[in-house]
Amino acid sequence: MALTLIWTAIIAFGVAMYIVMDGFDLGVGILFPFVRREAWRDVMMDSVAPVWDGNETWLVLGGAGLFGAFPVAYATVLPALYVPLVLFLVALVFRGIAFEFRHRSETSIWAWNLSFAAGSTMAAFAQGVVLGSFVHGLPIENGAFVGNAFSWLTPFSLFTGVALVVGYALLGATWLIRKTEGDLQQWAFKAAQGLAIGLLAAIVAVSLWTPLTQPEIADRWFSFPGLLLLAPIPIVTAVLGMLLLLALKARREGSPFFLSVGLFLLSYLGLAVSLWPYIVPRAITIWDAAAPPKSQLFLLVGAVLFVPLVLVYTVIVYRVFRGKVRHGDGYHH
Description:
two-stranded antiparallel sheet
C-alpha cells in the first residue's frame, strides 16, 4: 500500500512539473503567430531555447512511471487515447525540429515559424483533449477498453482542449513578461490580461460542468463534510485569479508567472481530489492497477536516484540562463 501511494505521488509530481514547465514554452509557441515582428519571435524562441528539452524530461517520468508502476492503467488508457496521443507526439516532433532549424534558415523561416506555432498549439490541444476525455470517463468494462478510436471525442474533451491552449498561452505570456523588455513585454502584458480572463472563465466552466455530469464528483464537493474541507481550493483559486489580474494591471514583472502557475496547480489539485482514488476514473483504482510490490520497489530505486538529479540539473539551468533575453544575445546566437 505504501509503495503504491509513493508511486502515485511520484507520477503526480512528474505530471505537475511537466504541465507547469513545458506549459510555458508551449505557450510561447502558441503566441508565435500573434506577434508583429520577426525580431520579437527571435527573442521569444531564445527565451525558451535553453530549457525546453529539459522541461520535457518530466513527461518521460510520468509516462514511464505509469507504464512500470501501474501497468493495468497504462494498458487500459492507451488504446482509448491513441489518436490524441499520437497527434501530441507528432506535434512535439515538429516543434522540436523548428527549434533546431529556424535560426539557421533564411528563405524558409515562415515554414519553421508555422511548425513551431502549429506544433505547440496541437500539443497543448491534444493534452487538453486527453485530460477531458479522461475526466469525462471512458467506456471500460471489466478493466478493458470497449469503445472505438474516437470515444475520446466529446464536447467536454474539446472544451478542455481549447481551455488548455488558453492556459498555456497565459503561462507563455507571463513568462515573456519576466524574460523580455520594451515593446514585446508590453505586448505580453496586454495578451496576458485577456488570456487570464479566458482561463478563469474556463476554470469556472469546467468546475461546474464536471459535477453536473458526474454525480460522484458532485457528491464529494457539495455534501458535508467535503464541502467544508474542500472549500479552500475554489476560494484560494479565486483569490489567485484576482491577484493575477491586479498584478497585470499594475505591470508587475515577476508575480504574474507564479500566480498563473498557482492557478494551474490548484486546478490540478482540484482534479486529483475529484478523481481519487481512481487512476482510470470510476473504473480502476490505484490499488487495482498497481504492479507487484517487487516491481514497484525495483523502479523506486531508479526514481530515488534520478529524480533529484533532474531537479538539480533543472535548477542549475534556470540559474545559468536567468535574466532578460535581448535580441541577438540568445542561446542560438
